[in-house]
Specification:
Blueprint (H helix, E strand, L loop, with lengths): L1 H21 L4 H7 L4 H14 L11 H14 L3 E5 L10 H17 L4 E4 L3 H9 L9 E4 L12 H12 L2 E3 L13 H5 L2 H10 L4 E4 L2 E2 L5 H6 L6 H6 L4 E3 L2 E3 L19 H5 L3 E5 L6 H9 L5 E5 H9 L4 H7 L1
Helix pairs in contact: 1-3, 2-3, 4-14, 5-6, 6-7
């Protein structure tokens, strides 16, 4: 545990020094980009000098990762990218990213006065909850951003929102509705019920959002178990879908597809998501490269948390696995 804390401190110092000595940024600019105080940036530079990290060049094992992060950030046009090493054999696209998200969220809650955080669902967020240290944020509320399913109990939206709240010592607000309405049910009439009004009002004023993304394949729990029986993955792909964020299916250019399922989805509208001050997307895997790109193009991502396998594919312009399979 002590070693992990030291590694995180060294990694921050290395990133600060890279921007300061190589990119020529001021301490104020670095503090703004890394969402840290100017004092912390200054202390990191001094600590790096004392430790011998700063000489003619920056000597640290984290530089390759920082370069990779910067390359992905520039490629996708994002505010910040966090890249963590993934387990290669067997490859796990959830564990490392979930742990990194837990660290990022813990640091943000230590330095920022967030009052409300919207959350999506999925196995990556379940892994993040497992890695979160027990905290106490009694003035914080975790708000579910979409409906749920009756299956996938440990990582559906109902369990994720309560799991985050328990780990963070926070309150929570649950959207107690299905993710997709049954065919023929009028969405506006359904949401007009009084029990939903207060919840959707909270979605209009979130301080941050923790999002995930999925492709159109059986790897996606939503595709495998959550779609209405009369809608198939082929239907969605014919409409141009390459994946979803918050149950909203996007095309390759980041626009929402024109399909009846979009009008049956119970959750926050993507236009509202775009106005949230900080949107964090936690996603990794060859099969998610295309939807990560699409979500970034759509303005749904400020900070991306991913792994090195995915990052290399993004900057190389490599095709996502969903695209490769469709081409075969």
């Amino acid at each position: 545990m002590v070693r992990e804390v030291q590694d995180e401190t060294d990694a921050f110092a290395a990133e600060v020094c890279w921007h300061y000595y190589v990119n020529g940024m001021t301490q104020a600019e670095i503090a703004q980009q890394l969402d840290a105080t100017r004092l912390r940036v200054n202390q990191a530079i001094q600590r790096a000098k004392v430790a011998g990290m700063v000489k003619v060049r920056i000597e640290a094992p984290f530089i390759a990762r920082i370069e990779l992060q910067e390359a992905v950030r520039l490629r996708l046009g994002l505010r910040r990218v966090l890249v963590v090493p993934a387990r290669q054999e067997p490859y796990d696209c959830h564990c490392a990213v979930g742990a990194a998200l837990a660290n990022y969220l813990t640091e943000k809650l230590r330095t920022r006065s967030w009052r409300s955080i919207g959350v999506s669902w999925g196995m990556t967020l379940e892994h993040a909850i497992r890695k979160l240290p027990q905290q106490s944020h009694s003035d914080l509320e975790i708000v579910s951003m979409l409906g749920g399913t009756m299956q996938g109990a440990s990582f559906n939206s109902f369990s994720i929102v309560s799991g985050f709240a328990a780990a963070l010592g926070a309150n929570y607000s649950l959207l107690a509705a299905p993710i997709f309405l049954s065919e023929g049910v009028e969405r506006e009439a359904f949401l007009a019920q009084e029990i939903f009004a207060a919840h959707f009002a909270k979605l209009e004023s979130l301080d941050a959002a923790i999002l995930t993304a999925s492709d159109i394949s059986p790897r996606s729990f939503l595709i495998a178990n959550g779609l209405p029986k009369e809608i198939s993955p082929d239907d969605l792909m014919r409409a141009g879908a390459i994946g979803d964020v918050l149950g909203r299916f996007l095309g390759r250019d980041g626009t929402r597809i024109d399909h009846p399922i979009d009008r049956r989805t119970i959750g926050v509208d993507l236009d509202i998501v775009r106005r949230i001050p900080e949107k964090v997307l936690a996603a990794a895997g060859r099969h998610k490269v295309d939807i990560i790109r699409a979500a970034s193009m759509s303005g749904l991502v400020d900070t991306l948390v991913t792994d090195d396998v995915t990052a290399e594919l993004i900057i190389s312009g490599g095709l996502g696995q969903a695209h490769e399979e469709a081409a075969e």
